[in-house]
Amino acid sequence: MSLKNAKYLLGLFSFAALVIAVIARDTVVSTVLTLICIFASLAILYPNLAKLSNVSQDNPKVKTLKSVTIFNIVFIAAVILLAVMVTRLEKKELLAGLVGSFSENQINTGSKFLMALLSAIPMLFLGNVSPKIPFNRYTGLRLPWTVRDEETWIVAHRVLGYVSIPLAILVFMNVPTDMPLEIYAKCWWLGAVLLWIAIPGLISGVFYYKKWSGKL
After folding, report:
1. Which of 91, 202, 205, 208 has CB atoms 3.0–4.6 Å from 152's, for a disulfide?
2. How far apart are CA 131 and CA 156, in angstroms?
3. What is the pLDDT of residues 49-70, one digit of tens each?
4. Contact between residue 65 and residue 134 where contact means Cβ atoms under 8 Å apart
């Protein structure tokens, strides 16, 4: 497959997944079609990663790109399936029966733990491999300034690696407390996730500005 066709099909399947998620009313149909689009994108992206990233096929960093791509696809698919499963259980009123034997505090703590776990897994994995991700436009922290300059890309992904472990620990810190799930989700958890993107994004943005304004 030519590079041009690969880019076209990737854009097409990404757009299709977005449209399906917005317009499809049946949860199961929407999930199945979205997952088909996601795995079709993986089938196109995986063998063409070296070409799309302008990296030679024998470069060790291609292996990093492939592992990150597979992780992203599998993790997204797992989260979608989990969300659909919970929704179906709620509709059939089975979820209430499953959690009825637990106290409100146990449910609150368990829900916070699940949220923390689902955010800590990508933080730790991507934080570990991010400094090894080569400059490209398809995998990694793709901000307007990071995809324009390789040095800025390197700065962003090094910082991402540094902040991932502290922020992964941070999302767990309020799990065993009495903090309500809604406050935890909207303040503590969301704040940690946003910081995970904002800190490397801001530092790399300042670096990019200083570099191109001649202040470095």
Report:
1. 208
2. 9
3. 777 777 777 777 788 888 888 8
4. yes
